[in-house]
Amino acid sequence: MKVDFPAIQTKHTEEEVRLISESILNAKSLSMGAYLKEFEDNFASYLDVKHAFGVSNATSGLDLTAIISGVNEGDEVIVPVHTFTASALPFLKRKAKLIFADIDPETFVIDVADIESKITEKTKVIVAVHLYGVPAAMDKIMDLARANNILVVEDCAQAPGAEYKGKKVGTWGDFGCFSFHGQKNITTLGEGGMIVTNNDDFANKILGLRKIGARPFENQEKYWKPAMSNIIEAIPGEFPENYALGEIQAFAGNLILKRIDDINERRANYYNRFKDELKDYSELKFQKVPTEAKSAYHLLPARFVSDYAHRDDLIDMLFSEYGIKTVVQYYPLDRYELFMNNGYAPNTCRKSDEFFDNMISFPFMSDMEDSMIDYMINSIKECINKLRNNGSN
Questions:
Q1: 212 and 295 both lie in a single domain
Q2: Up-side HSE of residue 25: CA atoms within 13 Å toward CB?
Q3: CA distance 283 to 383
Q4: CA–CA separation, 253 vs 255, rounded Å?
Q5: Same-domain status, 199 and 277
């Protein structure tokens, strides 16, 4: 039997699709207009943060943090080795020295003790990634950062709505970057993102960099004099980009934002159902959510720990016999050709390597039918039982 799992994490409802269609006809602009402003205002209000700016994707937001933080060659940036490439790429582009940090093998997110051991006088930025929806220990990370005059960038691409000690992720650090890719809890029709900050100076620089440096003239005589808008240099020596988020994308994202808490609660129920019904299968070690944290449950990763079979055996059997396509996430950054070609040696973080070599990520999305969940759980049980029996022969 083959099972078709949706490629989109969170689908728009039929009513939302109707409203999106109307928004195309009613939009006064398709870029940098009222829909974007409403989405930004609502997102800032939801997080309880001063400033929120829609961008083309989370990578663009991270690019802006790298520029504004002033990272240059010789500066050090601590980033988890187990994360999506975009967490590190903007800093690599600026020729900073990446210092790869290990993960906690229980929570699968960046390990604070390893961060502390790798801070030097050259450390300029810590990138805290809330991977798979589970927040990093932000209070401890911020204590380290403030004690050492280090900026903190929160990569919240997979964690909209997640909280640590009652405070939304993205609001702890100097910047928070969110993704609205089609495979995220909130989607803006394929691509999109948001960068947030409580720092007024950083906010002004984002405005000057995000959209080709276009800003209103001060004391403009008429709306067309001296020109429609000025092109400013928000940071001396730094050229602006075009990271704009389209109006219809913003409208679509705003619709899902209104129900993100319900979406995350549903995902939490799915996660707990998987974890509870597979509790007798000790081979699977699911991601631990600390008691002081609230996860966005973006994905369903687990470690497969066994002395009779390998993770690959489970992946092969689930796909070949049950049609369930699982994946392995994420290749440690120091193993990628891009990073090795730029001077980084592989296998620098033991816990992350062990996790990657034994992890499996099961299909997981916001709108899973009970029959789909039952099929997956029963298939996983049957596969592990078969592997157990084969291992005992």
A1: no
A2: 4
A3: 12
A4: 5
A5: no
Q: How far apart, in whole angstroms, are the C-alpha atoms of residue 57 and residue 259?
A: 21
- Of the candidates 388, 362, 370, 378, the one whose C-alpha atom is nearest the C-alpha of residue 278 is 378
pTM of the model as a whole: 0.95
CB atoms near residue 49 (< 10 Å): 16
pLDDT digits (tens, 9 = 90+) for 51-106: 999 999 999 999 999 999 999 999 999 999 999 999 999 999 999 999 999 999 99
Please give the Cα distance from 11 to 226 (Å, whole number): 46
φ, ψ of residue 292 in degrees (nearest 5): -85, 5
Q: Is 176 helix (H, G, I), strand (E, B) or coil?
A: strand
Do 249 and 329 sit in the same domain of this protein?
Answer: no
What's at 167, amino acid-wise?
K
- Which residue(s) pair with 77 in the sheet? 98, 125
Cβ–Cβ under 8 Å, residues 222 and 254: no
Distance between CA atoms of residues 339 and 321, nearest Å: 37
One domain for residues 124 and 240: yes
User: Do residues 175 and 236 both lie within one domain?
Assistant: yes
* Total number of domains constituting the chain: 2
Are the C-beta atoms of residues 62 and 277 closer than 8 Å to each other? no
CATH number for the domain including 360? 3.90.1150.10
Residue range(s) defining the domain that contains residue 293: 260-392
Residue 1 has what pLDDT? 52
What is the distance between the alpha carbons of residues 20 and 18, in angstroms, rounded to a whole number? 5
Q: What is d(CA 160, CA 295) in angstroms, rounded to the nearest whole number?
A: 9
Residues 123 and 198 in one domain: yes
Strands (E), 220-266: 230-231
Last residue of a domain, one of 257, 286, 308: 257
Regarding whether 301 and 252 lie in a shared domain, the answer is no
